[in-house]
Amino acid sequence: MNKKDLKNKKKDMEEYNFKLERFKEFLRENGCSFDNNTMDLIYTPAKGVGIYFTKNITFNKETPAFSIPSFLLINQTKCLSFENKELHTSLERIQPYYSERYTLMLLLLWWRKRGQIEYSNNGYIHSKNHNDPYFFAPYFDVLPEHISATKYFNDQDLTQLEGTELYQAVRKAKT
């Protein structure tokens, strides 16, 4: 790897770390909880953010490993409540096809095309209003750049899913 590539890689890592720290702060500010002694978040551009455990733990129903307040969950209802005229105009165009999936896809497309640019132009300041899509900017920024659907996993990747219902469903879909 030449010096230019190393410099670019270092810059990318700094940007990823910045995004991850901003996302962790967003989670803490909004009432998410997770035990910093047993788990952490990791960010990669290919996979987005993932939670990983730093120690072996025992799960039980009374003490969740982490919690996320319901107002942070993005669903169709949340998308339709956003106070953004441009996004609403786009959502109205797909009204005959309204579904959870299409609505969320449109939100993410809007973010990639318009929201992300405006957000960075404003110095990465996100809104404190839960009905503003910019409120979720720290989350959108740590989503993966590309999504790899399990249907297209190779056999080696599928071994990571063994013992789960998803493994059986993917195997069935591939046949």
Structure description:
With 175 residues, this protein is mainly alpha-helical. The protein folds into two domains: 3-144, no CATH class; 145-175, no CATH class. 47% of the residues lie in helices and 9% in strands. The protein contains seven helices and four strands. The chain has helices at residues 3-29, 76-81, 85-93, 100-121, 137-140, 155-158, 165-174; strands at residues 33-34, 39-44, 48-53, 66-67. The protein has a two-stranded antiparallel ribbon with strand order 1-4. A two-stranded antiparallel sheet has the order 2-3. β2 and β3 form a beta hairpin. The radius of gyration is 19 Å and the shape is globular. The N and C termini lie far apart (41 Å). 11% of the residues are buried. The mean pLDDT is 79.
What is this structure, in a nutshell?
This protein is mainly alpha-helical.
List the helices and strands and how they pair.
Elements: H1 3-29, E1 33-34, E2 39-44, E3 48-53, E4 66-67, H2 76-81, H3 85-93, H4 100-121, H5 137-140, H6 155-158, H7 165-174
Q: Report the major sheet.
A: 2 strands, antiparallel
Termini Cα gap: 41 Å
Assign the structural class, choosing from mainly alpha, mainly beta, alpha/beta, alpha+beta, or little secondary structure. mainly alpha
- Percent helix: 40-55%
The multimeric state of the shown protein is: single chain
Calculate the mean pLDDT score and round it: 79
Overall body shape: globular
Strand order of the largest sheet: 1-4
Unreliable segments of 5+ consecutive residues: none
Which terms would index this structure?
175 residues; mainly alpha; 2 domains; two-stranded antiparallel sheet
